[in-house]
């Protein structure tokens, strides 16, 4: 199967710290991720002053989304330096966008692909803006219907992005996601319906979920990465630490290998066992030359060497023996 693209979602797990952001890039690279992804936003442009925080964020004691997000902002200069550092570390830098941003910044970031988070799937202004750039786009689909997904894809294409450059991620937008709401079979439904690459963005506390998504054909796996799950930010609890992330990557790569191809065939490793494991026709007892071969004097056993398959017994039944046979001798 095609190699699964694995995204280490840093998001805001840098907690507003540039040095911590660099450490997360190092951790993503060491863990085997293909891409390290951040969230680029301006809190004053993203929310109204008093927009309430989500239930899972209430433990952080912020009065509003705006107040919370201000604590997790990085400057444009920080992101330019992080993208440069990522290239130096030989891991692709990617970012999620929530509003239109300066084209000059996009040019400096040198992004191969762009990410549109689930909450922005109905953001006409953002979809139109990013669609005009004609880059590869990853669209998360949490909290959305197939109609909303279709509308977003149509707008991206109408704005200038080729459909083949769009990938969508199934996900459940709750942190952490309850296992009962993960619904991984939706991956197959989305692939069949939209006929484009489909991946999975995981917010559960289970490594089994992204591995299972890979087995179901997810082309992309996105998972939050943190340096420490006990930190106080909004997403640390539903993230994996570097060791856990590396274990997940290894399991995904093993899953890719074990899935193989959609074709039943004899594997290279098992070919040598065919002769040793199958039974072949042998003399059930002593047979004299000229005797009629029948079920009374022929049986099948493992012999360790190739002979006549029991499936071909009708070819020799009622024929005369051309030689003497000892018991257990190959026919």
Described by its quaternary structure, the protein is single chain
**Sequence of secondary-structure elements:** EHEHHHEHEHEHEHEHEHHHEE
Q: Over all CA atoms, what is the radius of gyration?
A: 30 Å
Number of helices: 12
The chain-level mean pLDDT equals 94
**Terminal-residue CA separation:** 44 Å
State the secondary-structure class: alpha/beta
- Could you give the count of β-strands? 10
Largest sheet: 8 strands, parallel
Which descriptors would you attach to this protein?
16% strand; 10 strands; 331 residues; two-stranded antiparallel ribbon; alpha/beta; elongated; eight-stranded parallel beta sheet
Description of the molecule:
By secondary structure, the chain is α/β, with parallel strands linked by helices. The chain is built from 12 helices and 10 strands. It has helices at 18-31, 43-46, 65-70, 76-88, 103-109, 124-131, 146-159, 186-194, 208-215, 242-259, 268-271, 274-277; strands at 5-11, 35-40, 92-97, 113-116, 136-140, 166-171, 198-202, 220-224, 279-283, 298-302. The strands form 2 sheets. The chain has an 8-stranded parallel beta sheet with strand order 3-2-1-8-7-6-5-4, covered by helices on one side. Strand 1 (5-11), helix 1 (18-31) and strand 2 form a beta-alpha-beta unit. Helix 1 (18-31) runs parallel beside helix 10 and helix 9 packs parallel to helix 10 (242-259). The chain is elongated, with a radius of gyration of 30 Å. The model has no long low-confidence stretch (mean pLDDT 94).
């Amino acid at each position: 199967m095609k190699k699964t693209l694995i995204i280490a979602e840093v998001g805001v797990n840098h907690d507003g710290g540039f040095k911590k952001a660099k450490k997360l890039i190092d951790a993503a690279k060491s863990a085997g991720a293909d891409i390290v992804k951040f969230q680029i936003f301006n809190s004053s442009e993203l929310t109204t002053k008093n927009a309430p925080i989500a239930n899972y964020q209430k433990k952080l004691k912020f009065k509003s989304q705006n107040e919370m997000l201000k604590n997790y902002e990085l400057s444009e200069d920080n992101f330019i330096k992080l993208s440069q550092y990522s290239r130096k570390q030989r891991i692709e830098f990617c970012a999620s966008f929530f509003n239109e941003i300066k084209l000059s910044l996009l040019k400096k970031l040198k992004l191969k692909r762009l990410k549109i988070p689930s909450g922005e799937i109905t953001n006409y202004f953002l979809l139109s803006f990013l669609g005009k750039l004609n880059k590869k786009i990853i669209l998360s689909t949490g909290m959305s219907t197939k109609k909303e997904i279709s509308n977003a894809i149509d707008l991206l294409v109408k704005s200038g992005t080729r459909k083949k450059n769009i990938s969508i991620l199934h996900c459940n937008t709750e942190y952490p996601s309850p296992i009962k709401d993960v619904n991984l079979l939706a991956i197959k439904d989305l692939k069949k319906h939209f006929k484009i690459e489909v991946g999975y963005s995981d917010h559960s506390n289970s490594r089994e979920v992204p591995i299972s998504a890979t087995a179901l054909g997810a082309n992309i796996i996105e998972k939050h990465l943190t340096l420490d799950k006990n930190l106080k930010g909004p997403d640390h609890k539903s993230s994996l630490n570097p060791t856990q992330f590396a274990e997940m990557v290894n399991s995904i790569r093993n899953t890719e290998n074990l899935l193989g191809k959609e074709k039943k065939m004899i594997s290279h490793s098992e070919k040598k066992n065919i002769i040793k494991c199958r039974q072949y026709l042998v003399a059930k007892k002593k047979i004299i030359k000229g005797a009629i071969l029948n079920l009374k004097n022929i049986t099948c056993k493992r012999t360790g060497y190739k002979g006549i398959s029991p499936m071909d017994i009708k070819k020799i039944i009622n024929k005369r023996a051309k030689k003497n046979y000892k018991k257990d001798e190959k026919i």
